[in-house]
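Dear colleagues,

As part of the handover before I leave the project, I'm documenting each prediction I ran so the next person doesn't have to rerun anything. This entry is a single chain, and its sequence is reproduced below.
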Amino acid sequence: MTGQDTAIRPRASRAGTRTPAPRRADALRRGLARLGWGFSAPGLLVIAAVTVFPVVFSLVLSFSNVNVLGSGFQLDGFTLGNYTTIFTASIWQYALAFTVGYTVITVAVELVLGTLIALVLERLEIFRGWMMAILLIPWSLITVISATLWDYIYDPTNGIADAIFQALGLGSPVILGTPASAIVAMMVADVWKTTPFVAIIVLAGLVMLPRDVYEAAEMDGCTGWQTFWKITLPLLRPTIALAVLFRVLQAFGVFDLPFVLTQGGPQNATTSLAILGYQAMFSDLKFGAGAAVATTTAALVVVGCLLFLRVFKAQVTETEQ
């Protein structure tokens, strides 16, 4: 064996012990993942404490016999009686129908008005920023403040609505005093507050649409109405679906607006599922029934959103084909 071979052999051995580049990259990714989880852990613990735990605890309450004591309450065994009670109660059936109808009507009106406002804003070349800022004022208000504002408007003595009705010769109706007018008044307040939210989302989708498609449609002689129905609306489907999804989630859990305006009245006319759950738990001290109302409401929201996303996905797939 030559001296040259002896000198070369240790070098080859050291080169063979080096970690390959793919392994180093995998180790680096795993290290970054562990670091990310370490930084995220405090936030995840907070989310679990304020979100996951209440949901799980509410689910446990809904399947338990809850005995109210002077020092609190205690759970006394498993039961399905809470769900039997609410499903057979006429007030729960009405609250469900009211919540569904309220959600469908308000979301539909907000979608139409928001789309029209977005189409107008999209064509503005000047003052668009100012118009958007003004448009966001109703949506930026806390719902309790917005509801208090509308409570003043609907006041039968000093409200603006009363003055308008008198000027039109319609007398002085008690808007929040009858079931039908109270429901309409609450829907008007909701539409006023949340239509800007829909308008901003739809406007964001409009400005992202490709311009060459509209130029081709103009060259083909399409009218504005044909362009909207055959080009704009199909391309806006993902944006509209996002807006509808957010609004359904918000509208189905409506609580603060009827709580401030009517407290669920008159004659339980504006009692939503959220109001019913609040009344059961904190007014009647029926914690199990109130938890059952909350659980069924959450389940209905999840099922409704999944069905909506399924239908929307099928429509998008059909359009692409």
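Residues 19-56 form one domain. The CA atoms of residues 264 and 271 lie 4 Å apart.

All the best with the project,
I.
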